[in-house]
Amino acid sequence: MSLALRTALAYHESWKAGDLDRAMTYIAGDIVCDAPAGRLTGAGAYRDFLTPYLRMLKSVTLLAAFGDDEKALIMYDSATTLVASAPGAECVTVRDGTIVYSRFLFDRAPFIAARAAQ
Amino acid sequence: MSLALRTALAYHESWKAGDLDRAMTYIAGDIVCDAPAGRLTGAGAYRDFLTPYLRMLKSVTLLAAFGDDEKALIMYDSATTLVASAPGAECVTVRDGTIVYSRFLFDRAPFIAARAAQ
After folding, report:
1. How far apart are CA A73 and CA B75, in angstroms?
2. In chain A, what is the straight-line distance between the N-terminal and C-terminal CA atoms, in Å?
3. Options 3.10.450.50, 3.40.190.10, 3.40.50.2300, 1.10.10.10; which CATH number does A3-117 get?
4. Which residues in chain A are contacts of B74 at CB distance < 8 A?
5. Pick from A74, A87, A91: which is nearest to B103 by CB?
6. Which among A75, A82, A78, A69 has a CA at the least distance from the CA of A115?
7. What is the tens place of the pLDDT at every residue in B30-75?
8. Residue A50, SS3?
9. Is the predicted ipTM greater than 0.90, yes or no?
């Protein structure tokens, strides 16, 4: 398995298991993440981005995961208390065992709709 | 390059070039596509799904593409007349040179907001 994919999967398995502290050990302190709502800079901002999602997470199914020496691309589906099916895709750049850049993709529409209905 | 990735990239390059007819030659007649708004069944429904997006497409940048013998996963960013940055990810299953299943992910929120503002 490629180095980047090994890191991406270790990170994925950690947050899937609800272990945010362990997941963050795979995130570089100066990570840059381009998420649907805009750019996040730094591990603190990234942790704040993941936290509310993990609070409502029920289960995760990995759909595909590939990588080479520096990049990995994964797609998964997830079930949350707010949205029944919330797939995500992450394209990460890995350096020295941590994710230094992430392009993070999910559909915000069902979350916006569910929050408006609450 | 893996067989599935070759097909996924040929399809991607075709629609990127605006050639929907050529792109559709890589789509199975009975394709099933799980898109953000729900399941699409059949090449006709898939073509109707792509058509309005391609009409507003200005440019596409491939971010990552990987695959094995039967699955490929790609992520790209795109610029459209409606939404400046509209990334997408497609996880496709390929059989006999055509895409028989696709999990298609993009963020609908900026499209909904832009249409509401029009």
Report:
1. 8
2. 44
3. 3.10.450.50
4. 73
5. A87
6. A82
7. 999 999 999 999 999 999 999 999 999 999 999 999 999 999 999 9
8. helix
9. yes
